[in-house]
Write a structure and sequence with these properties.
The protein is about 55% helix and about 15% strand. The protein has about 270 residues and is α/β, with parallel strands linked by helices. It has one domain: 2-enoyl-CoA Hydratase, Chain A, domain 1 (Alpha-Beta Complex), CATH 3.90.226.10. The strands form two sheets. A six-stranded mixed beta sheet has the order 1-2-3-4-6-9, sandwiched between helices. Strands 5-7-8 form a three-stranded mixed beta sheet. Helix 3 packs parallel to helix 4, helix 3 runs antiparallel to helix 10 and helix 11 crosses helix 12. The longest helix has 21 residues. The chain is globular and about 55 Å long. The protein starts with 5 loop residues before the first strand and ends with a helix.
Length: about 270
């Protein structure tokens, strides 16, 4: 099957999904969500594939969900927001819920929804120079899949989520426990493939059941309920809006997304 926003292939017992909208830093739009779901399903149903590697084309893994498409959607009210955010939540969690393991090989930018996507994968390999972060609070938005508090310490999670800092480098991300390996630029995919081959060489049933047992532990601690409660909060944030969101959207509408992002960042540079 051919896709427009991604590329997918297999190499032996490894399946690959490459985000392929490099002209917009692989921003995740509705079409990409659907195509990635179809590609992941193909890999899950392929008995030869043991591990999936997710990576990005061009200058970045991904800058997150497509803000231009979001603005054009003109979502209004709690129910519309719930439907839209639930779709994004399911898109991210499909990698967590899939029966086979996945590895994210990231470079450039790994932000917002893309950051959550990498967290949902079992491992993450980052190139030096990669920037991580969840900038949503800086323009009055919320977190779709609040996985970070489950992947690192409460202090580190608060630092990222409550400041909206999106300049966390790969080395600091590794200190926080959200990256497995940091490698020179251009070697992230090679390292991810090496890890994938190690997993694929192991007994597949043992790998899958061990992974399932690990995930059950998170579920028993209440992770799923916490994520759904956080999604309720995100619906409230998005439906309510606020002065920061209104100004961000005004600038985006009148001057473009680049100007809106510059306005957002300048407020914190001044502080």
């Amino acid at each position: 099957m051919s896709f427009e926003t991604i590329e997918t292939r297999t190499d032996g017992n490894i399946g690959f999904i490459k985000l392929n909208r490099p002209q917009v830093l692989n921003a995740i739009n509705k079409q990409m969500k659907q195509e990635m779901r179809e590609a992941l399903t193909q890999h899950m149903e392929n008995p030869r594939v043991a591990v999936v590697v997710l990576h990005g084309e061009g200058r970045a893994f991904s800058a997150g969900f497509d803000l231009k498409e979001s603005a054009q959607a003109d979502t209004q009210g709690n129910e519309e927001w719930r439907q839209r955010l639930q779709q994004s939540f399911d898109f991210i969690m499909q990698f967590w819920d899939a029966p086979k393991p996945s590895i994210a090989a990231v470079h450039g930018f790994c932000l917002a929804g893309a950051f959550e996507l990498a967290l949902a994968c079992d491992m993450t390999v980052a190139a030096q120079g990669t920037r991580f972060g969840e900038p949503e609070v800086r323009f009055g938005s919320g977190i779709v899949a609040l996985l970070l508090p489950w992947m690192t310490t409460p202090k580190f999670a608060a630092e990222l989520l409550l400041t909206g800092n999106d300049q966390i480098d790969a080395e600091r991300a590794m200190q926080m426990g959200i990256v497995n390996h940091v490698v020179p630029q251009g070697q992230e995919l090679e390292k991810a493939v090496a890890l994938a081959r190690d997993m694929a060489a192991a007994a597949p049933l043992s790998v899958q059941l061990t992974r399932r047992a690990m995930h059950r532990g998170f579920e028993m601690m209440g992770m799923r309920q916490a994520l759904l409660a956080a999604l309720d909060t995100d619906v409230l944030i998005e439906a309510t809006g606020g002065p920061e969101r209104a100004e961000f959207n005004r600038i985006r509408k009148e001057q473009g997304l680049k100007a809106a992002l510059e306005w957002r960042d300048a407020r914190f540079d001044a502080a």
